[in-house]
Design the sequence.
């Protein structure tokens, strides 16, 4: 049996907060636990916040905003983007500097620390996960893993699901090639994005509006050296693109 | 706390097996439980099996198979497809008759009942989920939900995650629009494909090679009238396509 355990009682996260210590104080961790942390909490602790009044919109941002969105917000999205993948009205799907394809480069004002601010994705979510993982292991002596997640839309299907942006101490891609099923057939197409499945599972215990940014997934045996970067696919290998 | 509970001890499923009875015999269900069933078990119980020797490959199937794949298998894929979305070598991404976009129309020979057979997706996964949901509610008196799942690849990200094909008795899309976050902002882009997240969570407890087709997700409070069909997006609304 696997358990999805929300970590209650975390305060609003501020820049330079020690997330690992705040988590370790609130839950007794065990070996193999995967600590799943919403990107927004990580970004806030890392100070990845911009004040909208400090931003000047470019001509491109004003054009994209099309009077339907604050052009300064669009400007922040453009600065976080490597490429624009789709433009439709004021909504922009981009490839971020990390290689993620998502709406608005993950820039969001919901759950921002105060009005007039925007939260950006961490600069390097794998590095964020590693730092928190190391700190948690140091504080607890337990071989935990960490996944930093965000809610992404996707092609072909409605709605968002949570996915893994940064991973440390746990397998990200589970390769079942070479294993066989009950009648001895080799299982095909069986590279499972297990870190994305863990991210999605954790979201079930989160309750988006209630502000529970950390969920512990207990009962997996998936220690490993996965990264979020592994899950990002090169365009030329992407059969669906 | 949410629990992901694998249902052990199910035999190989055969045509006309009573899946609901087989599940109810093996686990004590509770109100609000979501019973997550791998598509292959449902398809086998529904007799959605073809014998490869009974298939004659069309010219198109022979061309697509390109000497790398049994053209009769490709023929079965083509018969299950409404459109071909991508062709690359012997791999075909299609839109199925249901509107799902997936590799090989979900046709698979892994975990097939015997060599030389292929398992197809259920004809109507929502109807399959409804039938099993009704039967489980009748047998147990508990207000359970049912989700029929499969492992799908997706654009932009490596690997598969399990998604919901058929849903009954449980919410499929969780609409958080109109709810506000801690500082009072309305949450945007917050239609969560919760049935896909439940599907992904259940896969964590499954162990693909070991043949555990049924997982119970306990601790959610998501009774509702969701369908798998709701999650399928109309191409003209698909910002990512």
Sequence:
């Amino acid at each position: 049996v696997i358990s999805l355990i929300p970590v209650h009682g975390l305060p609003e996260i501020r820049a330079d907060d020690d997330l690992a210590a705040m988590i370790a104080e609130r839950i007794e961790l065990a070996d193999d636990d995967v600590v799943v942390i919403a990107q927004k909490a990580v970004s806030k602790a890392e100070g990845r916040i911009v004040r909208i009044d400090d931003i000047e919109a470019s001509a491109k941002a004003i054009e994209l905003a099309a009077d339907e969105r604050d052009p300064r917000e669009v400007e922040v999205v453009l600065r976080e983007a490597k490429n624009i993948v789709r433009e439709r009205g004021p909504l922009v799907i981009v490839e971020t500097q990390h290689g993620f394809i998502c709406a608005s480069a993950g820039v969001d004002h919901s759950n921002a620390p105060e009005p007039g601010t925007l939260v950006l994705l961490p600069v390097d979510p794998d590095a964020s996960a590693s730092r928190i993982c190391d700190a948690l292991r140091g504080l607890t002596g337990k071989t935990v893993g960490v996944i930093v997640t965000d809610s992404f839309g996707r092609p072909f299907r409605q709605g968002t699901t949570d996915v893994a942006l940064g991973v440390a101490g746990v397998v990200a891609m589970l390769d079942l090639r070479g294993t066989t099923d009950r009648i001895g057939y080799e299982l095909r197409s069986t590279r499972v994005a297990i870190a994305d499945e863990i991210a999605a599972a954790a979201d079930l215990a989160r309750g988006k509006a209630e502000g529970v940014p950390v969920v512990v997934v207990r009962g997996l045996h998936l220690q490993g050296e996965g990264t979020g970067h592994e899950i990002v696919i090169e365009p030329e290998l992407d059969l669906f693109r």
